[in-house]
């Protein structure tokens, strides 16, 4: 998609990032966040990996975990990695934190994907997951979550991981590869449940891009719960995160009962 000005995609990205930052600034006002963990990683029973959006950083998203106050999360290890700096095509080659290349903004159901860079990013996520499992966390207690570009990477990482994980949560994401990749999904991988949350008023990753995931996942045999949020643009809402907490908690309890 050609653009008449240089600033349009960068403005879209800036507005999206600003809306997310404003949400965290408002919600966590007078609630200082401490980076220290109350529970040693060695005691962690559950692992949650959060993947941020284009141009963002891991530390900027860390306050999310303070929302999860249920006792089920007391032995949870969180990880908020930052994407490496990479040139991004949709922003005319500007270097910024990016998991993989994005060719155009806004993203629609028919936007092109750079599958090679997506698959390279997936390898890095799998390395993180492998390390946690090697450290004693069961695959069914591993949850991958991500917003926007991080949501697209979440989907790819979950579906291409050879084992069944606890779940994958995609916020305002899209399917970052073509349906030909489906034959690479293992029987265990497609058992991992997906939660998809998307704002109807999203102008950066259009709602239609999120909806396009449904037939894709159905074709792959993947269970997906799709939740649409009216009046929500390209950002994360408190309502979405509250539902994520209950969604993960339910799967924690199921995992606990099945292993006892």
From TrEMBL:
InterPro entries: AB_hydrolase_fold, LYPA1-2/EST-like, PLipase/COase/thioEstase. Keywords: Fatty acid metabolism, Hydrolase, Lipid metabolism. The keyword Lipid metabolism applies. It holds the Pfam family Abhydrolase_2. GO terms for biological process: fatty acid metabolic process; regulation of plant-type hypersensitive response. GO terms for cellular component: cytoplasm. This is Phospholipase/carboxylesterase/thioesterase domain-containing protein.
